[in-house]
Design a protein that fits this description.
The longest helix has 29 residues, at 24-52. Helix content is 23%, strand content 22%. The protein has 3 domains: 3-64, no CATH class; 96-120 and 166-183 and 219-468, Alpha/Beta hydrolase fold, catalytic domain (Rossmann fold); 494-696, Jelly Rolls, CATH 2.60.120. 52% of the residues are buried. It has 15 helices and 26 strands. Helix 2 packs antiparallel against helix 3 (54-64). The chain is an alpha+beta fold. The radius of gyration is 26 Å and the shape is globular. The strands form 4 sheets. Strands 12, 13, 15, 16, 18, 21, 22, 23, 24 and 26 form a 10-stranded mixed β-sheet that branches. It has a 9-stranded mixed β-sheet with strand order 1-2-3-7-4-8-9-10-11, sandwiched between helices. A hairpin with an 8-residue loop joins strand 2 (138-148) and strand 3. The structure holds alpha-D-glucopyranuronic acid.
């Protein structure tokens, strides 16, 4: 048994929850009893439904759920770090290569369904833009845009509403889906009334499944625009009903239909449901957000309340471009551990909302112990990015303590990156945020809702981990000449490898001579199974223009890269014809931003990168005080235009993966001086290089 399953959990007060040490007989017994109790409640619930309608059944279910900690039972959690053969990850790279994909696949197969492919997002009509003064004199820019999420004419469109601070520089943004339309989120009368199908709610002005004028500002307490804008954050929202109308037969009108997924009949066990669709929609909105010059693409935070919190967590798991992930009271199928018999259970949720999950999930009703995954795994998918989990003490249906315990149990994923997770296993008192590391948590007083005080804690946490920081001042225009090739180095350039006459000005990862071959004036990656036979420039620089000509091979997808300072990688990959290119395709700053256009050439052709790299600036403690940026041209096309970045995101950075003493020395010197080397990456493909130079700025 692994250490993760052996770990003991302890809650606040006298209740110590024990994770069973393999006591399978005991476990089965608890599950059995719990299941019998649930069946009894269901019978009572159905009787109540017959007598007084469906809402009575819902109330009866909620009232009848187990709310006694003593009856939660014992349980064994699956090891969050395990790979396909059960062996736990031993390093960040091992996690990224072997274990994270396995854990993500378990969530796909058993809970949310297969991930949906990216599509091209287009804007319908003209975005509407206005400078507005909000309550309290807060100045903001309001933007409204209608996005066709799946490109095709028949695809559903989502209306996105944003308020951005007028700070003159790209801002971090909180993105969330809302329940009743954008007009319900704020009192601004200019907000477009949603056209989405919505569950009726007369009190909130939703009648005949459509929003009426009476729905304006009905949920405004949930979206404190003024407070966030005043803190320097933009806020963006869209209605979940635009993506998947929240009803069991909503598939046919949802994006799933446009994406060619079946809408009726027997669905495959891992056929995605509404949560997968909402999460996918968040990513498509992100596709548009990252292209807006006023938005800092590297600091978009996905937030969600309740069912939309489940979707936010799944979006953060599937799309690592979200810089931070926030779950508010997402409960069952969200942040709460499934194996605890407390509040809502798999049986409850799949009966009332059969369309939210993949069909396989409902087979675990009353058998949570048999699930090969659990919700701490979902939380771990956010690692190493900052994650915030919020509960409310009276929201027992969502199992606040179960949400906390999942956050504790997700921690080992951050530890692999040398980062603390939550930093405590004691359930904190109400209204006392905790989170010594990169996971934050609070349990608010009061019931199921999303309030300004929750948002303030999210923003405190984002301030701490994403930092509202200035970019380094821009340098002049950057318009390199990229043809004809080979290009000659300009005056002032330090040539790292020219036409093959001089030995390459690189060392190995250990500081010794390189073992890459020079063939016909080109330098060829000497590939290794460990993918860590990179070469390291002797020259050190802070900001620089970097030029490299390269040719990808067919092996291993042509994978290689220009690893600047060993922290930030301009991707080299066989991405010819890939549409839309992602943040892992050629032209991307790996894991930070996709290329603006796909400029890749096919395998076997010479290609050229010119990159203007502006390094981030750090204070004496190593904290980034000014973000870095890249502008890059690939094969004559602008692929990055001042994309900003903060801490390195790749699990493969050479100071972690395949590190040597020589590199440890380089990294600590770089932390001190801000100056570092250029790496050419071995990622298993014999990429060829020529004409590699840097011109320090
Ligand atoms: C129901 C459901 C929860 C969900 C919540 C919401 O209560 O049972 O799982 O989180 O609705 O989305 O408001």
């Amino acid at each position: 048994m692994s250490t993760a399953t052996e770990r003991r959990l302890s809650g606040a007060g006298s209740l110590a929850l024990e994770v069973a040490r393999g006591g399978r007989t005991g476990l089965a017994k608890v599950t059995d009893m719990a299941w019998r109790r649930r069946v009894f409640r269901l019978v009572v619930g159905l009787w109540a439904a017959g007598a007084c309608g469906v809402s009575c059944m819902v109330d009866s279910l909620a009232a009848d759920a187990n709310y006694e900690e003593a009856a939660v039972g014992t349980y064994t959690l699956p090891d969050v770090l395990a790979g396909p053969d059960g062996r736990p990850a031993t390093s960040a790279a091992d996690w990224a290569d072997r274990c994270r994909p396995h854990q993500l696949a378990l969530l796909e197969a058993n809970v949310y369904g297969r991930r949906l492919p990216p599509t091209l997002v287009s804007v319908v009509g003209d975005p509407e833009r206005a400078d507005v003064t909000l309550a309290g004199g807060v100045r903001a820019t309001r933007l409204q845009v209608r996005l066709k999420l799946a490109g095709k004419p028949e695809a559903p469109a989502a209306d996105v509403l944003l308020y951005l601070p007028q700070s003159g520089r790209p801002v971090p943004v909180f993105l969330n889906l809302n329940f009743k339309g954008n007009q319900a989120e704020h009192s601004d009368p200019a907000i477009w009334l949603t056209r989405a199908w919505l569950p009726n709610d007369e009190k909130s002005g939703i009648v005949g499944n459509r929003a009426t004028e009476a729905s304006r500002a009905a949920n405004a307490r949930r979206w404190p625009v003024e407070a966030m804008v005043a803190r320097g954050y933009g806020v963006a929202t869209a209605c979940y009903g635009d993506i998947f109308p929240d009803k069991p037969d909503g598939r046919a009108e949802s994006v799933l239909a446009t994406l060619g997924r079946p809408v009726d009949g027997d669905l495959a066990p891992d056929e995605p449901g509404a949560i997968a669709a909402w999460a996918w929609g968040l990513s498509r909105i992100l596709d548009w957000l990252v292209r807006q010059p006023e938005i800092d693409a590297t600091r978009v935070i996905v937030v969600g309340h309740s069912r939309n919190g489940k979707a936010a967590l799944w979006a953060g798991a599937c799309d690592e471009r979200f810089a931070m992930v926030v779950s508010n009271e997402s409960g069952c199928g969200g942040a709460a551990l499934e194996r605890r018999n407390y509040g809502e259970t798999t049986a409850d949720i799949t009966r009332r909302f059969p369309h939210w999950f993949c069909p396989k999930y409902s087979t675990f009703a009353g058998r949570a112990a048999e699930m090969p995954t659990d919700q701490h795994v979902l939380l771990a998918m956010a690692a190493p990015r900052p994650l915030y989990v919020a509960s409310a003490i009276e929201d027992r249906w969502a199992d606040p303590r179960g949400e906390f315990l999942a956050a504790v149990e997700a921690g080992p994923a951050w530890k692999l990156f040398g980062i603390e997770g939550l930093g405590t296993s004691e359930w904190p008192p109400v209204d006392t945020p905790v989170g010594g590391g990169r996971i934050g948590y609070h349990v608010r007083s009061g019931g199921h809702d999303l309030l300004e005080c929750d948002w303030q804690r999210f923003a405190d946490f984002a301030d701490r981990h994403l930092g509202v920081v200035e970019p380094v001042a821009a340098t002049g225009e950057f318009r390199p000449v990229q043809q004809p090739l080979p290009a000659a180095p300009p005056p002032g350039a330090i040539v790292l490898f020219g036409a093959g006459e001089e030995p390459p000005a690189f060392t190995s990862m250990a500081g010794s001579p390189i073992d890459w071959k020079v063939e016909n004036g080109t330098l060829v990656v000497n590939t290794t199974n460990g993918h860590a036979n990179h070469i390291v420039s002797r020259a050190r620089f802070q900001d620089a223009d970097i030029h490299a000509e390269f040719m990808v091979a067919a092996e291993a997808h042509g994978n290689s890269g220009i690893y600047i300072h060993g922290h930030y990688e301009m991707q080299i990959y066989d991405s010819f014809g890939v549409e839309p290119p992602t943040e892992q395709d050629e032209g991307s700053l790996y894991r930070f931003g996709p290329p603006l256009v796909n400029a890749s050439r096919p395998v076997g052709e010479w290609q050229v990168y010119d990159i203007r790299f502006i390094a981030p600036r750090r204070d004496a403690s190593g904290r980034i005080v000014k973000v870095g940026s890249v502008t890059a041209w690939l094969n004559g096309k602008l692929v990055q235009d001042g994309l900003m970045f903060t801490e390195p995101r790749s699990p493969y950075i050479p100071y972690r993966h395949g590190v040597t003493d020589y590199l440890r020395g380089i990294e600590s010197e770089m932390r001190r001086t801000g100056r570092g080397p250029l790496f050419l990456q071995d990622h298993g493909s014999p990429t060829r290089f020529r004409n590699v130079w840097i011109r320090p700025l």
